[in-house]
Amino acid sequence: MKRDQETEGTLKKRTQRDYTLGFKLSVVDQVEKGELSYKQAQQRYGIQGRSTVLVWLRKHGKLDWGKPSLHMKPMPKSEETPAQKIKRLEKELADEKTRNLILNRMIDISDREYGTAIRKKFTPGQAENSSKNAM
């Protein structure tokens, strides 16, 4: 779909008139679906202006592109290997287990020292009744 043409060994620069409405909408759709970042679309299709795709997104897009940094996915510098991912996930799991242990101890202390009953023990029948009362 790249419309650049070689003219005497150099690429012809594109102008705004080269972009049809259908082309613009296609690029906007790809960016909004997350298939490309706006910078990747710019590079893939040889779009000269640095903000041209952003202008299209603001004009034709369905999302609010007033602040484009909210919609850009952070690009990882390098892909995680499976071993690195496992190691990272194991650390996250260990951190969550520690957090869970601390929160449970805090609840135990609160129940013991202040007489609170944070952990409520529901029987299956009580859980159904409380959900009906909430409606």
Walk me through the structure.
The chain is mainly α. The protein has two domains: 6-70, no CATH class; 82-130, no CATH class. The chain contains five helices and two strands; from the N terminus they run ββααααα. Strands 1-2 form a two-stranded antiparallel sheet. It starts with 5 loop residues before the first strand and ends with a helix. 9% of the residues are buried.
Biggest β-sheet: strands ordered side by side in the sheet = 1-2
| Main sheet specs | 2 strands, antiparallel
DSSP summary, beta strand count = 2
User: Percent of residues in helical segments?
Assistant: 40-55%
What class would the helix/strand composition place it in? mainly alpha
Shape: elongated
N→C terminal distance: 55 Å
Give the averaged pLDDT, no decimals: 77
Helices, by number, come to 5
**Strand residue percentage:** under 5%
Rg (CA only): 27 Å
Unreliably modeled segments: 1-9
What's the number of structural domains? 2
Query: What series of H and E elements makes up the topology?
Result: EEHHHHH
